[in-house]
Amino acid sequence: VEAVHLIADGKAPRIPQPKEGATYEGIQKKENAEILWDQPAAALHNWIRGHDKVPGAWTTINGQVVTFYGSSLFDASVPAGQELAIKGASRPGLVTKNGLVVFGNDGKMVLVRNLQFEDGKMIPASKYFSADETAALELTEEEKKMAEDIR
């Protein structure tokens, strides 16, 4: 009650905050967000989740920096998928229909939903191997007629 009265009367002491240690700027640097793979799955998930969106937890895949977004712990049997070698990981990741499954040093899994490349392009992790493919859109005769009517 006394503190509230001092503030209300404008007589509360003012103690300046020291400049040392007064910022979080240092932990927001991209170079501090690299994923260290020799950890349990829960720690990997917390690291990725903790750096989601800024600055983004990253690793190196095929010589390119790839940033991971949208992780969750994956508690099921190992899904079918295409293997993806990740620098520093003891076991390759799996590109599945739901995303990229990575493994902690405890054998448990983390599911990553989105990946961002150095050029800024973001894709669903499930599309990693098809990211460079472009499919031509082929219309049926009915669809061609509809497109013409719309024009």
From TrEMBL:
User: What domain of life does the native source organism fall in?
Assistant: Eukaryota
The cross-references to Pfam families, in alphabetical order and at most eight, read:
Formyl_trans_C
Please list the residue ranges annotated as the Formyl transferase C-terminal domain: 29-130
User: What are the GO MF terms of this UniProt record?
Assistant: catalytic activity
Q: What is this protein called?
A: AL1L2 dehydrogenase
What organism, scientifically named, is this protein from? Answer: Scytalopus superciliaris
